[in-house]
Amino acid sequence: MARLGGDAALSREPAVQTAAPPARRLGSSRWRDPRLAVGVVLVATSVVVGARVVAAADDTVAVWSMRQDVSAGSALTAEDVTVSHVHFADAAEADRYFDGDQTLPDGAVVGHDLAAGELLARSALVKPESEAVSELPLPVADGLYPADLETGDRVDVWVAPEDAADKRAAAEQVLDGVAVLRTDLGSTSVGGGASAVVLVALDADGEAALDELLAAVTTGAVYLVREGE
Length: 229
Prior knowledge:
- The chain is built from 5 helices and 9 strands; from the N terminus they run ααββαββββββααβ.
- Among the domains are: 61-126, Type Iii Antifreeze Protein Isoform Hplc 12 (Alpha-Beta Complex); 134-226.
- The chain starts with a helix and ends with a strand.
- It has helices at residues 2-12, 34-58, 91-94, 204-208, 210-217; strands at residues 61-66, 81-86, 109-110, 125-126, 134-141, 154-161, 172-190, 193-202, 220-226.
- A 5-stranded antiparallel β-sheet has the order 5-8-7-6-9. Strands 1-2 form a two-stranded antiparallel sheet. A two-stranded antiparallel ribbon has the order 3-4.
- Helices cover 23% and strands 30% of the residues.
- The radius of gyration is 41 Å and the shape is elongated.
- It has 229 residues and is α+β, with helices and mostly antiparallel strands.
């Protein structure tokens, strides 16, 4: 009996409880971390901006420029020029200058003085047979020339009668495709009105007809019409 009672007492003792392992919480994925997303956006933006900066820096055109001063009437040689990389606003502007990837015209003669560092405009060179090159200043009233006229442009020169009695007379073209060597815009006054003085180049044919040319430009209003590219 005592033995049974002892077993009963033992059966009433509580069972030993073992400690349960602590619960582990699943951490959030690193890919959902907002800081990582912001970092990815910043990196992507930097790459795009950097690519655009590099592309803009490479958006240049190779053109010939003067390595040294060359005076008018001199033959232009390869030693006189070097290649410069220049950014132009558009293709039409770039076309006014000699492509640095191409060779210079054979026997080219400089039509007016060129300074070191100056871009070599196509209008700066004349044909070898045009040995005598003159510079003719033309007084032009405001509104009778392109507002953005600049050195290197080629213009047709027209003269229209100024006398009221000759208003029906037709305008006359006196020069065809001459090169603009210099512009001095709005700095003088002719006949009480503001005007420009535009210096143009004359070849041998223009010099031969200089008397008629001067008579025409001094008796009428001078118009400059820029040639299209």
